[in-house]
Amino acid sequence: MTIMYPNRKNNLIQKSNELISKSGNTYSNRGMSLEDDLNATNTYYLANSIANIHKKPTPVQIVKVDYPKRSAAVIREAYFKQPSTTDYNGIYKGKYIDFEAKETNNKTSFPLQNFHLHQIKHMEDVINHGGISFVILKFSLYNEIYFMKASDILTFWQRQQEGGRKSISREECQEFGTLLKASYPIIVPYLKCIDELYVI
After folding, report:
1. How many whole angstroms separate alpha carbon 59 and alpha carbon 65?
2. Each residue of 140-195: pLDDT tens digit?
3. Domains of the chain
4. Phi-psi region of 78 (alpha: psi -120 to 50; beta: other; left: phi over 0)
5. Cα angle vertex 166, ends 97, 36, to 5°?
6. Per-residue b/e over 21-30, b at no fewer than 16 CB within 10 Å?
């Protein structure tokens, strides 16, 4: 059963504008985290029927629940579990989209230790099943956001496993990735990269 909510599109557009304006009267990502930027972008994509992409909720393990009465339950103790996949997924032009978002304050490189083995395996699995997988990397000090294909991330990961560098240099991000330039109303225009780099 489908439930339709009145003014849903208008509400999504309003939410997108609210998220975008959190940084003040500019759209250059200042004062916003990468997650905020992506959520605002995805809200815009959804409100305008461009793509349907969402952040996956962090799984929670509930340990203790009290039942003060039959109709109510109160969670007293719970723990965040490590996510088993990546941050975002959805659909765009009939293709499954799956990606991870990472930030670093490092000036010269992005440490590969910020990735977990299960995330690497998940991205590889998505590629093997014909989906589109990538990573959005942000160098916070420079306010630079890069689109990196998962296949390149897997190559850097393999290099590390073979005793090579344990990070991706900023220069390598510039060489292998695509710098995403913020604009209004799309703060992180990653779908443009998908259009340019993949045949869909």
Report:
1. 17
2. 999 999 999 999 999 999 999 999 999 999 999 999 999 999 888 899 999 999 99
3. 8-197 (3.40.1350.10)
4. beta
5. 40
6. eebeeebebe
